[in-house]
Amino acid sequence: MKKDFLSLADCTIDEVRSLLDLAVTLKAELRAGGNKPRLSGKALAMVFQKPSLRTRVSFEMGMIQLGGRALYIAPDEIKLGQRESVPDVARVLSRYVDGIMARVFAHSDVVTLAQWASVPVINGLSDYTHPCQGLTDLLTVQEKLGRLQGVTLTYVGDGNNVLHSLLLGGAKTGMHIVAATPTGYDPLPEVVRLAEADAARTGGSVRLLRDPREAVAGADVVYTDTWISMGQEAESAERRKVFPPYQLNSQLLAHAKPNAGVMHDLPAYRGYEITDEVADGPQSWLFDQAENRLHAQKAILVQLLER
Ligand code: CP
Ligand code: NVA
Asked: Is 225 in the pocket of ligand 2 (CB under 6 A)?
């Protein structure tokens, strides 16, 4: 395993499998009374350029449960790249803490942090990818369906960071990832190429479509995310015109397999990309998925920091 966790593209198929195994172990151990203090005395700096509920709280609680501690650094505090250069922040933090988790706008900032930090750097979401979410999503599907190999997961909506993580993670675990996105909102071709290369090895596949109904047909899991990612607020009006045909509502869900699971990384903009009926319906996995952020990230923390 590399020093850092920046993208699922950097992990081998075996590394993804062993992170999932470790997450399952840590979840069971927590439920059985508590985790061993594997990260006793270790500290994680959590640097945020954007808001967060899940990432902030699950990383902080994860460190506490593993016997360590986490320091929250709010967007206005260090002003990454503005008040101080990214390489300087990386070198200073490396003198104080044992790991850095960063949520950034530009993916290049998390790459630069990793280059200059002597401690592990974890990508807590960039404009390019959300690998902690991707690993969580694999854990959730595996837990719900008992396998990843051969599972069809259809994503409807924006070809964004969350879809990128699903493509990269799904391809490495033999899943069939189908995505329906509007013209102009496709996932990046380089991500699709990486995913196709892995899928060819694992027996998975990648299918990119425009029509959400066609995409959802036969899906074991249907996934959506916000139409307006953090940093895209200026495009809100345009995006709200383009995306409504991609709303995950009961009519669309009816085209998937009976009892198909529903996933969303959250926060959900109810009434836009997902309806209340679906988000709160019997097929929703939303809050089990949110819980799994904790368990998946603890596996990443143990893997990178317990050295
Ligand atoms: N899914 C997710 O990353 O949530 P937060 O933005 O609340 O961290
Ligand atoms: N695509 C969303 C995910 C939020 C967790 C964003 O980047 O804002």
From this structure: yes
Rg (CA), the chain: 19
Instruction: Give the H/E segment covering residue 99.
Output: strand 99-103
Q: Which of 111, 120, 112, 104 is nearest to 88 (CA)?
A: 112
Tell me which residues of the chain have a pLDDT lower than 70.
none
Task: Name residue 248's beta-bridge partners.
Answer: 274
Distance CA 260, CA 220 (A): 5
**How would you label 72-111 residue by residue, b for 16+ Cβ within 10 Å and e otherwise?**
ebeeeebebbeeeebeebbeebbeebbbbbbbbbbbebbb
Cβ atoms 166, 153 nearer than 8 A: yes
Tokens 């790459």, residue located: 111
Cα–Cα distance for residue pair 284/275, rounded to 1 Å:
11
* Model pLDDT for residues 253-303, shown as the tens digit of each residue: 999 999 999 999 999 999 999 999 999 999 999 999 999 999 999 999 999
Ligand 2 pocket test: which of 162, 164, 188, 264 has the largest number of ligand atoms within 8 Å of its C-beta? 162
* 233 in Cβ contact with 212 (< 8 Å): no
Residue 267 Cα to ligand 1 middle (Å):
6
206 strand-pairing partners: 177
